[in-house]
Specification:
alpha/beta; Alpha-Beta Plaits; Oxidized Rhodanese, domain 1; 3 domains; five-stranded mixed sheet; four-stranded parallel sheet; globular
């Protein structure tokens, strides 16, 4: 079975969240949808997958209850089931920044379409910032972009406060995987005095979907949060795998390394892996193999 995958988000004020959670979970379970959906007072965010027919019906449901088609939706495919189960969770934020002044329902930067993004990248006065985390940026970035090397999105606030100055850094452009983090980051920066703030509409995924490889300023693969690990131009699955011991993305050379043991270790984590941790991961791998064989 080929799986249709939808990455989606929409900043919109919501209320009666428990009822929305219940309805959404019931509908998705009835239509064999897997993946994760987050619901918060500021909106909805998620990546889900299913058969083409069931996913299309689910998108109609989400549009009816959340207006999702007014937000960002990107479709791709997977040859294997990309998520093991369905999770529909209530959160304080659909993307955690812990900055109440960052409210995309009230203020955001200027959206830049993929077709105009290359032009923006060549502006010598523009500071281009990757708002993703370091384990994501290590497998791919836009040429010339600044990497804050954050371990989580909440650290982006510290990066802005210690590195950037609205009086000196007049023009800021940001991007992320699907657009949600850079949209919220733009709201944060606008609240802190940065005026010319831009962000890539639809994120890297929309750029890779629409911009031909021979005209692209993207280098490497785009990390995604499912079993595909990374995608390339045309949203084709990349050659990257993941070490489920440390969650680091692995290149083909890493998989050939003697330190690589599926589900247990890789060259990035072998030196800090304890015997107890290794044994626990091996037991987990056996359980997964048994479940697949049933």
């Amino acid at each position: 079975m080929n799986w249709k995958v939808a990455a989606l988000y929409y900043f919109t004020a919501l209320d009666d969240l428990p009822a929305l959670q219940r309805k959404t979970k019931e509908f998705c379970l009835a239509h064999d949808i897997c993946g994760t959906i987050l619901i918060a007072p500021e909106g909805i965010n998620g990546t889900i997958a299913g058969s083409e027919d069931n996913l299309d019906k689910t998108m109609i449901f989400l549009d009816t209850h959340f207006g999702i088609m007014k937000g960002e939706v990107k479709f791709s495919t997977a040859c294997e089931k990309p998520f093991s189960r369905l999770k529909v969770r209530l959160k304080k934020e659909i993307v955690t920044l812990r900055a109440p002044e960052a409210d995309p329902t009230k203020r955001v930067g200027t959206y830049v379409t993929p077709s105009r993004w290359n032009e923006l990248l060549t502006d010598p006065d523009m500071i281009v910032i990757d708002t993703r985390n370091i384990y994501e940026t290590k497998i791919g970035m836009f040429k010339g972009a600044l990497d804050p090397k954050t371990r989580n999105f909440t650290e982006f606030k510290d990066f802005v406060q210690t590195t950037l100055d609205p009086a000196k850094n007049k023009k800021i452009a940001m991007y992320c995987t699907g657009g949600i983090r850079c949209e919220k980051a733009s709201s944060y920066m606008k609240a802190h005095g940065f005026e010319d703030v831009y962000h890539l509409k639809g994120g890297i995924l929309k750029y890779l979907e629409t911009i031909p490889a021979d005209k692209s300023q993207w280098e490497g693969s785009c990390f995604v949060f499912d079993k595909r690990i990374g995608v390339d131009h045309g949203l084709q699955e990349s050659a990257y795998k993941m070490c489920f011991g440390c969650r680091e993305p692995l290149e083909p050379e890493d998989i050939k390394h003697q330190a690589y043991e599926p589900g247990v270790s890789c060259p990035h984590c072998i030196d800090r892996l304890t015997p107890e941790r290794a044994e626990g991961l091996r037991m987990r791998q056996k359980q997964i193999a048994q479940q697949k064989s049933q």
